[in-house]
Amino acid sequence: MQPTSLAFKDRARDAVTDAQLQRALLNMKPGFQQRRAATVAKLPEFEALRDQARDIKNHTLANLDTYLLRFEERVVANGGQVHWARTGREACEAIAEICRRAGARTVTKGKSMVAEEIGLNDHLEAEGFTPIETDLGEYIIQLRHEAPSHIIAPALHLVKQQIADTFREAHTDLEADRPLSEPRQLTDEARAMLRRSFLSADVGITGANFLVAETGQTVIVTNEGNGDLTQCLPRIHIVISSIEKAVPTLEDCSAILRLLARSATGQEFSAYTTFSTGPKRAEDLDGPDEFHVVLLDNGRSAVLGTEAEDTLRCIRCGACMNHCPVYGSVGGHAYGWVVPGPIGAALDPALIGLDQARHLPNASTFCGRCETVCPMKIPLTKIMRHWRVKEFESGLAPASVRRGLSLWAWAAKRPRLYRFGTRLAMRMLGLLGRRRGRIGWLPLSGGWTRFRDMPAPQGRTFQDQWAAASRQDSGGR
Amino acid sequence: MSEARDAILGGVRKALAGQQLGDRSEASVDARLDGRPRGIIPDRVAKPHDALVDLFVTMAEQVSATVVRLDGLNDVPEAAAQFLADHNLPAALRLAPDPSLEGVDWTARPMLEVSRGPARPDDVTSLTASVAGIAETGTLMLASGAGSPTTLNFLPDNHIVVLHEGQVVGAYEDAWDRLRAAGGPPRTVNLVTGPSRTGDIEQIIQLGAHGPRRLHILLIADGADGGP
Ligand code: SF4
User: Which residues lie with the beta carbon below 6 Å from any ligand 1 atom?
Assistant: First the structure.
C-alpha cells in the first residue's frame, strides 16, 4: 500500500465534515468501547494478564532469531515450506510464484493487514490471478476499491446504505429491486456470493495472528469462518505473516489469546481460533496439499533496539484506535496507511519513514486512553513523543513550528522571564476575552481560532496557583 | 530465498544487540519450549468437575450455541432428529467417520438419511465428535484427522457436536495437554466458540457470516472419567 500520510491534515479536515463517516464512527462507542469494558470487568485477572503478555512478548522479541528458527524447523518437519521475504515486493513475488506453479486462477483471501501492507491484491492481479477477499468487511472494501479504515473492522467507515449500494452495483446478476436495507440481508447476500468462490478457489491465503515456535503452527483468530473456508478447501494454503508474530508455546499463545478478543471486540473469545501446520496428512480426508508460510520483515527487524521497539509487541487488537478521540473524529483513512490510530502513529514512522508519517505522531492529544487499554502495555504516547522530538531534530517540522518551539524553549529555560511573560500574557488574554469569556481571534493562532474559540484565562497562572497551594500545604502541616 | 533468510536473521541479530526488551540466550528459549510454563489461569475454572461442566454450558449458551444434555450416546439420533425438526431442516446428516461415534445406532431413526465423509457443498447439517470442551469460555476443541475432516466444521449451515462430560476441562492449557497426550498436533486444530458471526456492518452482530449459522452441542453424561 502506498502511504498517503502526508495528506493527513487535509483528509482529517474532510473527515470531520463527512456526515456519513461521522455517523459510522458513532458506532464505535457501543460497538467496541462498551463491549470491551463489560467483558474486561468479568475477568479479574485482566490486569495481571497484561503484564504477563508484555513479558512473554518481550522475551520472544529479545530472542526472535532463535524462535523464528525453531518455528521454521517445526513447519518443515510437518511437511510445510517457509519463505523469507525482506520486503513486500519479495513476499508478493514468492506468493505469485507459488500460485503460478500451481496453475492457479482464483485465490481466496482471509483478512490480513500484512497483505494490505504489501499490496498483495494488486500484485496478484497484475500477474493474472483473481484475488477474492472473503472477510465481509474486506469484501466490501475490495468491491469499492478502498483501503481498510480499521485493522479489525475494515469497513468501519461505512453505513449500511453505502454497502447496499455497493452490492447492487457489483452483484448485477441478482434482482435489481431486492430488499437490502438490513445487515442480515447484506450478510446473507455476501455469504451466498462468496460460497462459490470458496469452492472454486485454487489457493487460499490467510494472515497469522501468531506463529507458535513450539509446534510450527500458524494461528488465525476470526469470527466469520471465512479464514477457515479459505484454508481447508483449496489445494494450497499460503500464510503471510510478519516476523514479530512469533510466540514460544501454546501456553504463551493461550495467555495472549485471553487478551485479544476481549480487547478487540469485547468478546470472551472469538468464534474461531485455528491452529494450522503443514499440509494435510496421509490419513486426512480434506485439507490443502501444500502449506507455505511467507515470513516478512519489511522493516520490523530494524525497529528492534530502537525507541519504537515496544510497538513490535502489538497484537493488532484495535483497542487503542477504538478508544482514541482523534481516530474517533477522523476515522482510519485520514492516517493514510494500513495501520491507523495510536499504534499507527507510533509504528508507521518506523515502517514507512518519518518523512512520510510525520503528521501522525502529532495527531494525538496525549490523553493516554490508548495506553490504558492496550493489552500489550505498549507505551504509545512515549513513542509518539519520541517521533515528535525526532521530527524537530531532523528539521522535518515546518519552519513556523520550529521557530515557535525554539522561542518557547528559550523562554522556558529562563524561569523569571517565563513567569513574567505568562503573567503578562494571561492578563492580556483575560482582558481580551473579558466580555464573552472566550476569544475568537488571536494573532499567530489562526489555526486554532478558525475552528474553535479559546477560553479566556481566569485568575492566576498555573505556576502561581501551584506555588500558593504548596505554601498552604506546608503551612498547614 | 536463503539469501533473504540470512539477511533477515542477520538483521534481527544485529538489531537485537541494542535491545532493551529482555535477556537473550538460546538456553532460555529451549527451557521455555521444553518446559512450557503455564501462566495465570483464570480463577473461574478453579472448580470441581461438575461445576466446570455447568460453566461450559453457561458460557457456550452465552455465545449463542445451544446445548442439550443426554444420558448416553444412544440418545444422539433422537436429539439430532429433534434439532433438525425444530429448525425445519432436511432430515439428513453428514457424519464425521469418527470411531467414537461408531457406537451410535442410527437405524433407530430410519427416516434420517446419514452419510459419512468430508463436507460436500450441499450438506446442510454435519455431526462431529470433539477433543475437548473448554469451560473457561464455552469453547470446543476440534482436531482434524481420519475421523474428523475440517470441512464438516465450516461448510454446512448447521453443526452438531458430540461432547462427553468427561472431555470438559477448565482452561485452554488443559485442552492442549489432552491433545498432546494423544500425540503431536494434527494438521488443524479448531477452537470453536459459538456459531459464525460478524459485526462488519455497523457493528451489529449477525450470526452465520460464512461458517455455521447454528452450533448445537450434545453433551453426554458419562462421569468425570468417561469419554473417548
Ligand atoms: S497497540 Fe495495543 S491496543 Fe493498539 S492494536 Fe496494538 S495491541 Fe492493540
Answer: A 263, 314-320, 343, 373-376, 378
Element holding A351 (H helix, E strand) = helix A341-352
**Ligand 1 atom nearest to CA at A264:** 8
With CB atoms and an 8 Å threshold, state whether B202 touches A65: no
**pLDDT tens per residue, range A262-273:** 999 999 999 999
Residue A290 in grid coordinates: 501444500
Q: CATH topology for A43-298?
A: Rossmann fold (3.40.50)
Bridge partner residues of B221 (DSSP)? none
- As a whole number of angstroms, the distance between CA A121 and CA A26 comes to 30
Average pLDDT estimate for B27-37: 96
pLDDT 10s digits, A65-89? 999 999 999 999 999 999 999 999 9
Residue B178 to residues B52, B167, B185: CA-CA distances in angstroms? 16, 9, 11
Domain limits, chain A: 43-298, 310-393, 413-476
* ipTM of model over 0.90: yes
Name the strand (E) or helix (H) holding A37: helix A35-41
Instruction: Give distance in angstroms: CA of A306 to centre of ligand 1.
Output: 18
For B143, the enclosing helix (H) or strand (E) is strand B139-143
Ranges of residues in chain A with a pLDDT under 50 are: 477
Binary contact (B191, A273; C-beta < 8 A): yes
Which residue has the least CA distance to atom 3 on ligand 1?
A374
What pLDDT sits at residue A237?
98
Distances (CA, A) of A443 to A32, A422, A429, A434: 41, 16, 11, 17
CA distance A18 to A35: 26
Which residue of A43, A214, A232 is in closest CB contact with B154? A232
Q: How confident is the model at residue B226 (pLDDT cuts 50, 70, 90)?
A: very low
Chain A residues touching B186 at Cβ < 8 A: 281
Position B225 confidence tier, pLDDT thresholds 50, 70, 90? very low
- Answer for the pair A35, A265: CB distance below 8 angstroms, yes or no: yes
Query: Which one of B37, B195, B204 has the shortest CB-CB distance to A251?
Result: B37
Report CB contact under 8 Å: B150, A228.
yes
The one-letter code for the residue type at A71 is F
**Within 13 A of A432's CA, how many CA atoms are on the CB side?**
17
β partners of residue B198:
B206
Give one DSSP letter per residue of A243-263, joined into a string: GGGEES-HHHHHHHHHHHHHH
CA A470 vs CA A191, A192, A414, A459, A461: distances in Å: 66, 69, 22, 17, 14
By C-alpha distance, which of A241, A226, A240, A238 is closest to A288? A238
Residue A351: CB partners within 8 Å, gap ≥ 6? A298, A299, A300, A303
In chain B the domains, ranked by start, together with CATH numbers, are 47-220 (3.40.50.10420)
